[in-house]
Amino acid sequence: MIQFNNIHKRFGKLTVLDGLDLDIKKGGIFAVLGPNGSGKTTLIKCLLGMVIPNKGDIRFEGKSVLKKWEYRDNLNYLPQIANFPPNLSVIELINMVKNLRPKNSNEEELIQLFGLKSFLNKKLGNLSGGTKQKVNIVLTFMFDSDLIILDEPTTGLDPIALIHLKELIQKEKDNGKTILITTHIMSVVEELADEIVFLLDGKIYFKGSIDALKKQTDNENLEHAIANLISKQYA
Amino acid sequence: MLKILKYSFYDLMRSRWSYVYFIFYLILGFVLLFLNNDVNKAVITLMNIIIVLTPLIGTIFGVMYYYNSREFTELLLAQPINRKKIFMGQYLGISISLTLSLVLGLGIPFLLYGLLKSAAIFNFSLLLIVGAFLNFIFVALSYNIALSTENKIKGFGYAILMWLFLAVIYDGIFLISLVIFNDYPLDKFSLIATMLNPIDLSRILILLKLDISALLGYTGAVFRKFFGTGFGMLVSMSILIFWVIIPVFRINQKLKKKDF
Amino acid sequence: MHTKILLFFLFITFTISAKQIEVCSNCTIKTIKEAIEIAEDGDEIYLKKGIYKENNIIINKSISLIGEEGAVIDGEDAGGIIIFEADNFTIRNLKIINVGMSYTIDYAAIKVIKATNFTIEDCILENVFFGLLIEKSKKGIIRNNSISGTRKSEASSGNGIHIWDGSEMEVYNNELYGLRDGIYFEFVKKSVVFENTSRENIRYGLHFMFSNNNIYHHNIFRNNGAGVAVMFSKFITMHNNIFELNWGSASYGLLLKEIYDAEIYDNLFQENTIGINGEGCTRINYTNNTFLRNGWAIKIAGACYTNIFVNNDFMHNSLDLSYNTKIHDNKFDNNYWSEYTGYDLDNDGIGDVPYRPVKLFSYVVNQTPEALVLLRSLFVDIINFSEKVSPVFTPDNLMDSNPLMKKNNDSI
Can you tell me where the transmembrane regions are (chain B) (predicted)? Predict the structure, then answer.
């Protein structure tokens, strides 16, 4: 479904992606992991067209995405930081995004799920960080797309919302969606991910199932397995 | 683009600062007209304020809006919309809402005063047109700065510096070079130097109406040809339009390579 | 016998003086020159409707030359048309067109030489080189005429009413346009010029040279090279005139050069490049004038002493006053300045802080005219302000200590 071919990206002198190749098949949950600054967000942003690679090609559903924008109609993205125009109300924002994207949406259900009903007419500037993140999640999941990209989706969520989120992700997976998640919370990875993509030095250092990772690093605990991978960077 | 424009505009129109800005002009208009009772004097005072203040406010609003809505812009960027349209929508949203504050803020007191009967209507509309141009120019310039500067504080600093340079320092350098090179023919130089600064250009446009008798006192042939005819007005207006188009064009060029 | 002859001659004279000579294409007398040939002192020559293509008509008899409506004398650009060299004559209701141009001879529609007691009225002079050229004459009345030219340059054009060496002239209710100077006085004294309109002339609307003790009032000078130029003259009174729209690099509402003891009051100077330009003016009182939206209201260029400006209104001029010297011997008091930003705490109608009409910027513009493009720029406001706080370049005693809070004239 997604192919990254020889992606290079530099920010000034700092090389973030260095000839990265990655192939993601349709269906399932993929956790993109890696130490801080390993290029997880950059990779995702390249796919989203927000960061423009210096070299290489990215294909989504068989077509190159560079300099295009129409393909984004078939993917949903949850950004890391939820910050919205402070003078719009929640419902206005939802309507705006719907307006921008004339596609079927099921926001009602999600609003119900995250208990946002009473916030609908509040201004976004007056909401807490957690509530904003819930709005963020609603905006992401309300459209029916084949690819869902979640950048640190758990930030600021209370335990109940977290449970709902996990259920939501699971449900989408069962619907045959492809889901990319970046996170530092290993329990989430362990619980949800079908496959792990581990980035290091701007390349894919590991790609495979959790079991395969545990086996490779000879470590039963995922957290330690990951730490083991990261420590190689410092070695 | 229109959708983005609509929401940026909507967002800004509800912001406290738009109201402050609007009310400032409203009060200014009322004070100048009703305490002073002299439309000509009011127009001159307004000119002095508009050519300094609209660029400043345009600059500040521009950078502020850019940096404050950075995360939201990212959300928009992930939507199936062309980048260009997102930024042009935001740009137009800011420029139009600022222009609306200006036009309504000053327009209401002038209408109440009975401007339509007064002969100052032309000067007054020129003021508003120039004010609108300055909004569009300086929002575009500040967006250029913001797009090129990741650091918010730095971006803000550069933007204010740009305003200070164009509003004050430029004229200082200009005047000093005129005085130093007094012995050389300077009329082409001074005309070009005027064109290169949108604030100076706007000032000249208004002067063409208010102080034409003084401007004609100048001997240089190029100068007189320029100021003496409708040609001057036409050229100034078109260059003002260029001052909008070029920064907007550069925004779009910058966007093609920009990483968010 | 002697008395009988005398009586006879008196009778003859009487009948002749009452004589009217009609001229027209069907009359017995067909040309003006013929009519003049047979005319005696006191006769009236009546030109009936028609075009008379004549020029160089020399008249040295005290007669009246009167035209019917539609009587036109066409000089066909050949030279001067009428030359009067007599006392007690009248010219009325003539239309004279197409005076020849020359770089050496001053051709005029009507030239008057050494005349006393004459009247020129209700005439239309078109496409003239000089209109009326009056030399060594006195007690003339010139009224209700319209004089115009179509010349393009100063050298190829003449003046509308040109008086050289005259006195006790009255020039009023004339309209003059498209000439070099509308009205030109050289060595003319004790004369008045009023209610004339002089416009679109290449040089001056009204011009005095070496002419003392004259008055002009209630005239309109519009869109001339300069409205009025008063040079090398004494005791001129100027009041209730309108000087407007005199635009250009050397354009003034009123140009004063080497003049003494003048009174200038109740005039309106509106939208001129320079309202009043003074060089070498001494003992001049400027009272109750209005300076509205001029480039410079007043420009003083050297050697001006004891000029007193009281009760004038300075309104919305780009620059109120320009001074090119640091020596200052003129007085400004009780004027209204629209730029004044002071306050009046004791409410006596007079501002509590003095007003300084000379700004640093006007000093700079004097040195570097191109700097004018920076008019009303923020930087200029800043340097003006600093100069106001501590004068360095401008005369620090040049100020109006009692600026008025309200303007004197409500008319504008």
Answer: 20-36, 42-67, 88-113, 119-143, 155-181, 226-249
Residue C19 lies in a domain: no
The minimal CB distance from C296 to the residues B48, B200, B214 is found for B214
Which of C366, C367, C372 is most worth mutating to test chain B (most B CB atoms within 10 A of its CB)?
Answer: C372
Nearest-CA residue of chain A relative to B2?
Answer: A100
Please check whether residue C60 lies inside any domain of the structure: no
Contact between C343 and C388 under an 8 Å Cβ cutoff? The reply is no
Whether C48 is covered by a domain: the verdict is no
The CATH number of whichever domain residue C188 belongs to comes to 2.160.20.10
The pTM assigned to this predicted structure is: 0.81
Question: Which segment of A110-124, C2-16, C133-147, C295-309 scores lowest on mean pLDDT?
Answer: C2-16
- Check CB contact of B77 with chain A, cutoff 8 Å: yes
Dump pLDDT digits (tens) for B90-136. Answer: 899 899 999 999 999 988 888 887 766 666 777 788 889 999 999 99
CATH number for position A209: 3.40.50.300
Q: Which chain C residue's Cα is nearest to B42? A: C316
Give the start-to-end residue ranges of the domains of chain B: 2-257
DSSP assignment letter at A167:
H
Is B12 in CB contact (< 8 Å) with chain A? yes
Q: Could you list the residue range(s) of the whole structural domain that residue A34 is in?
A: 2-234
For C:287-346, CB contacts with B below 8 A are 293-296, 315-319, 338
Q: Which domain holds residue C121?
A: 72-389
On whether any CB of chain A is under 8 Å from the CB of B259, the answer is yes
Q: How many domains does chain A have?
A: 1
In a domain, C50, yes or no: no
